[in-house]
Amino acid sequence: MPPFAFSNWPPSLSEDQLQELTLIATSYALSHGLLYLPVAAKQPPAPSSAIHAPLSLFPSPFPRQLFEQAQKLQHIYNTLYARIAMDEDFLDEVMGAVDGVGAVDEFVGQLWKGWKQVRDEDAVPLQLGLFRSDYLLHSTSDPPSLKQVEFNTISSSFGTLSDRVAGLHRYILFANGYYDSSPHLKAENFPPNNTTAGLAQGLAAAHEAYNVPGSSVLFVVQPGERNVFDQRWLEYELLERHSIKVIRQTMSDLAQTASIDLNTKVLTIKTATLSTPVEISTIYFRACYTPTDFPDSAAYELRFLLERSRAIKCPSIPLQLAGGKKVQQVLCQPGILERFLTPADASTSSFSQEDISELRASWMYMWGMDLNGDEGVEKALTNHGKLVLKPQREGGGNNVYKASIPPFLRTLDASERQAWIAMELIEPPEGLGGYLVRAAGPEQQRREHEGEQADKVVRADVVSELGIFGWALFGLGKVNRDEEVGWLVRTKGKDSDEGGVATGFSVLDSLVLV
Ligand code: ADP
Ligand code: MG
Ligand code: MG
């Protein structure tokens, strides 16, 4: 048993107790908007039913010291990624279509070329990042250490739902008499999770900085998005707490509704339900992170039109590029972190050597397939059992693991390989259990209807991934404001390589600090 787990956790339950607690949990989830759209609802524009999001019945233990360390690191990461997004030379070199990974990755190359076209027209005064830094516990040391999986700069999801899962777990434990049943189960070990308020505060800060009365925030979303409630909660928070209106559009909606004044660069949206066109202050992308969001060249042109506008982008194309796995790998090279965190320019704030060492200590070893001719590939082939290979993609399901690496590398030609990085696998502690609850699929619902028991909850050995949310408002070489705003726990069965709630690998969870 790893040192931070505590005995009899999660509690062992009889079948009846398990079914009863599952009902209590799913009822809370359905009542509190901890929701997801079912697969069948993908097509119609106005779905009439929802399912609860996949969830864990009990919170997972997490070492307090490492949780606090991740919260502290978030401030450094907010500034680091803001500065990367403002460093054109660095991004050209690492992600560009001439010298960087954009030369061998079509999607990255397209985004970079579009950005290059528009970036010289006018200095963009401000941009916004809503970030999520993801970590796993690494157990080869005792006690375990915190290791970063990746840093997300676009469409970081599950902020508002994770806030609600923390509420669900406090309720389940309190209402069912688990509080005080162990010295670990007391209020001070359940940290607040106010991610909804925190992320909305970031969007509101951008909107206020734009400072045009009557303007709205634009959410750019994917058609048929199943994780729509996670996004809607942010919309309602902006309206209710900040009196800011949100317009929600897909890229194909925007092809009809968006226009930009080429002199003022003001972006306006005109829709059937709006009486007059509305000026956009801030564009929040919950789409455009994957090639399928760009079915044709017109979609890229539209994305570049949005980039050209004077609305504050969350993220801008350079900030999206900064989130590439290639950037994460290049940051590991000697001197690169110092370039961003201890700048020579005395007017720019500097971080301490301890901060830099702490950040580095949270990284796994990474290298590019472009390392010294064939050396990168050779190293990946030799060590494949301890590695994951990653391309420049977001959204889960894109990585290649362990034994699949050698045959996969052989399918790529020398130039295609350059778009991939190798990362040593984090080895999470073993021996932790959890109860994972998923909404029954259509087939199970049919069986349930016929009186059969649908199998919704399973006990499994699990691995949990912590995400810390933060935001930064920055531009013209300066970070104006940054905040650490909340957290997310996703838990998966220990034998699944990937995580990802949307991709069906994991469930939403929360934590109890130990
Ligand atoms: P994406 O941007 O698609 O989410 P990630 O880098 O987060 O890509 O990888 C997806 C999942 O793969 C992670 O959530 C994690 O579960 C697993 N994973 C990624 N890198 C590692 C690693 N170095 N060690 C162990 N698991 C990893
Ligand atoms: Mg990602
Ligand atoms: Mg991820």
Quantity of strands, as a count: 21
**Beta-strand fraction estimate:** 15-25%
For the termini, the CA-CA separation is 14 Å
Globally, the shape reads globular
Ligand names:
adenosine-5'-diphosphate, magnesium ion
Low-pLDDT residue spans: none
Largest sheet descriptor: 7 strands, antiparallel
Mean pLDDT across all residues, rounded? 93
> Helix amount, in percent?
25-40%
Rg over C-alpha atoms, rounded to the nearest angstrom: 23 Å
Q: With helices defined by DSSP (H or I, 4 residues minimum), what is the helix count? A: 17
Question: Helix- and strand-based class?
Answer: alpha+beta
Total number of distinct structural domains = 1
EC number: 6.3.2.3
GO molecular function, one term: glutathione synthase activity
Catalytic activity: gamma-L-glutamyl-L-cysteine + glycine + ATP = glutathione + ADP + phosphate + H(+)
Pathway: Sulfur metabolism; glutathione biosynthesis; glutathione from L-cysteine and L-glutamate: step 2/2
